[in-house]
Every structure is written in structure tokens, then in C-alpha cells.
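Technical annex B. To support the medicinal chemistry partners, we prepared a structural model of the target in complex with iron/sulfur cluster, based solely on the information shown next.
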Amino acid sequence: MGIIERFIEHPELGKKEYAELLQASESSEGRERLKKEALRLRRLYYGDTVYVRGLIEFTNYCKNDCFYCGIRHGNREAERYRLTKEEILSCCEAGYGLGFRTFVLQGGEDPWFTDGRMEEAVRSIKERYPDCAVTLSIGERSFESYRRLREAGADRYLLRHETASEEHYRKLHPAEMSLSHRKQCLYSLKELGYQVGAGIMVGSPGQTYEELAEDLIFLRELQPQMAGIGPFVPHHSTPFKDEPAGSVDLTLRLLSIIRILLPKVLLPATTALGTMDPLGREKGFAAGANVVMPNLSPAENRKQYELYDNKLCTGAEAAESLADLKKRVEAAGWKLSMERGDAAEEPLQEN
Ligand code: SF4
């Protein structure tokens, strides 16, 4: 039996075998076989549904200096902004009116947003919109901070681990940051009862199949409810400005592999995928993705939240163009759902 069939039957492989699997997925038969199984599982747990989340990028200040990131502290060219609590709430109000039932509050690691300020924002959203899920994506914080925000009502937390390999982590981050701390944060979030999202950039500088194999092992151990998998896209004001972008094809293969590894996972067709390929989103759904996150941030700030060059923030990436997005999702054969869309626990029907 080939490695692909072995993986489909028993997804728990070792590092060498995952690297072999990635190699085997380069062939068109390999890729198609993985896609077919990924779609079978995606339909089993989620039917035709694509969940939609309203993304609110509320601060582009960050104290960190990750080498790949356009809003890193060291980028003096970035025009910085912060939304007030009232501005965040008016994004939610607009989003709620459009039908959104999940708000994702995303920002850099901005010390201005103390636990108290974040608690207030989360509490106000949950008070006004108790039927909505609040997802936070605000980086590494203390256990106590995560605890307070969970108590204030936050339901989910996105914290991409970016790479599970120590050696690779060092190539992407300055010395003061640590992979073990990042992993610890993810385990703390799980312990506190958040629905947790980890994830990686595909094709980040120095990444090999062996490193991706370590990511697969880490994801399997962590068992996150969400996984953000998008191609690396360089930003012109970062140390990685001349590095090549990650491959759409490999991203799609990984989406299928992760759907098989974690069948119940919520897997976005990311904005980076849509930025790299005009049909990236549709291709993502066909590979096993089942979530989209259009942008609900104030239009004037969207350009400023530039994590990488040419990041899409208009058309189907903009929340106010929901009708376009719906059309595109339906044309691709899926149904856009405005429900809050928690991770599945059981198959929809018997296999
Ligand atoms: S990746 Fe996140 S933590 Fe790193 S610099 Fe960018 S916003 Fe800050």
C-alpha cells in the first residue's frame, strides 16, 4: 500500500512518513486522492456549509519583530492605528446587521490593549450580541490574561504556531521570542476551554517537508478546533522582502492533508490564498476548507493592516460585499452559512 493510502487509513504517521506523504502528494494522482478523501470527510462533518466570520483588525501596533510580518515593530513605514472600543462596537453593529454571528478581533501584540481594555471590549460585544461568538487573535499573553478574557466571554482564540520546528522558528523570529512559549500559550488556551486555532504559513523561508511534518505532528497532538493555513507572502518592508512567496499548490495539498488528519477542524480558505490566486478561495474549498473571513474593519484602516504585500481587502474579502461572496461560494457548489458555526462534534449522518 502506498503512503497516501496508508495515511488515509491511519493518519497517525511518523515524521519521516509525513515528509514522504508530502512528496507523494506532488503527483496529480496523489493530490486528487487526498482531495477526494478530504472532501468526503468535510461533507461528513459539515455537509456543503461554508461558515463566514467577520474580521475586525482593531490595532496594527505590535511590540514584536517577526521577520515575515508587515506590521512588525521595526517597520517604521507602517502607518499605525488603533480602534476605540466604540469603533470596534460599530464594526460589530454593521456586521450584525449584515448577518454575521462570529466576530474575530485581530491585532498585533499591542500593550495598550491591557487585560482590562480587552475585557471591556469582549464584555460589551457579548452583552450586545449574546448570540455571537467572539474570537480573539491577539498573540501571546499570560495564562491569567487568557483566563480573564475567557471569563469576559471570549469563545475562541486563533494563535498560529507558524512552525513547530525549533530550528525553523529561529529563522523566522528574533532571539527574544520562543517557540516553547507559543506552544505553551496554545495548551493554556485549550485548558481554559477556548476553541483553539493554530496554523502555519506555507513556504515561509527555510521551510522543508521535514518541518511541515513536524507541524502535522504538532497539530495532531494539539487537536485544535481551527487551523489557519495560508501561503507565505512577502512584505516589502521586512527582512524577507526578497524571499519567494509560498506555493498555492502546496497550500492546497496541506489543506487536504489537515482535513484528513483533523476531520472536524474549521479550516479557512485564507485571504493569503485569495491574494496569491484569484480563484484561491474556491480552490481552498475544493481541497477541504470550510470557512471564510471577510473584513469588517473600517474601510480606511484596511490598507494599513498590511501583513504582506497586496493583501486583498476589497471585493469578496470585504464584508459589505457579502452578496458577491455568497454568489462565488454558491457558484463553487457550497452554501454560505451565517450561523456562528462552532466546530463539529459528530458526523452529520452515518458514514
Ligand atoms: S506576526 Fe503577529 S506578533 Fe509577529 S510582528 Fe506580526 S503582528 Fe506582531
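Notes passed to the chemistry partners:
The domain at 47-337 is CATH 3.20.20.70 (TIM Barrel).
Strands lie at 49-52, 54-59, 102-107, 133-137, 156-158, 195-202, 226-231, 291-292, 335-337.
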